[in-house]
Amino acid sequence: METISERIGLYDFWAVLLPGCVFNIIVIGELKLMVQANLSAPDPLKGHISSVFPSSVSDWIVFAVVSYLIGIILHEVGRWIKKIFKAKNGADGLTNASMKVFSEKELTALYPLYIRFGYCKEDFTVTDSRELFHRINMEAQKSDIAKSFVKLSVNQNMSYSLSAAFAIHCLFILALLVRLIINRSYQYICFTTVILMVFVFLSGLFFRRGERFNRYWVRNIVCAVSSLFSMRAFSTIQTETLQTEATQENKQNEQNNISS
Fold it and tell me: Fewest beta carbons within 10 Å, which of 51, 92, 183, 260?
């Protein structure tokens, strides 16, 4: 597992490859259902549906490559879905009430951080808030703080990708259900309806999970950078105090030398 993570990256494995694999496995299940229900399926697959799942090393390689490519598409679709629901109110904003990242009291406590980045307004717009967060995130990247919260970032993106995968399959299952109703394949209608409901639930569940990890990630990044600046400020004050004390001590020694 560590070798895989080192070669393709933790982010690529969990947020891209895994959702792509889940998507492909569900596709295989849908094709099996289509064949069993005597619905039209791609001719090369008829009679060979049981061998669609990888059975050799070369098949596994093709499966992994296709899953990775699909995972990239799901990643972008997940970001698009996130924008639909959140971008209008500032997806990465700190003042966005719908995200519930920071309360009014907490925002007030973080005001020195706003000043540090050159903001002097008491009321922030969505654009200001989003830009401020990106600057804080850049500071976290420079200070290597962001590495401590990679898992939160991976979890949120994996969740959005899985949400997109199940949402797309909801459309496929819905089309399949309509086809079953038209063909009067009643023995499969109830089963397909249950699958559709499960996929709708899972899509919403993973989307909410992505929102939750997004809030955790934003809060941790902002609080860590805020603490970093507080430590720097304390260190600066401490250094200045020591320098002042040293200067006073030197002056006192000079006066004592002159007196003697």
Answer: 260
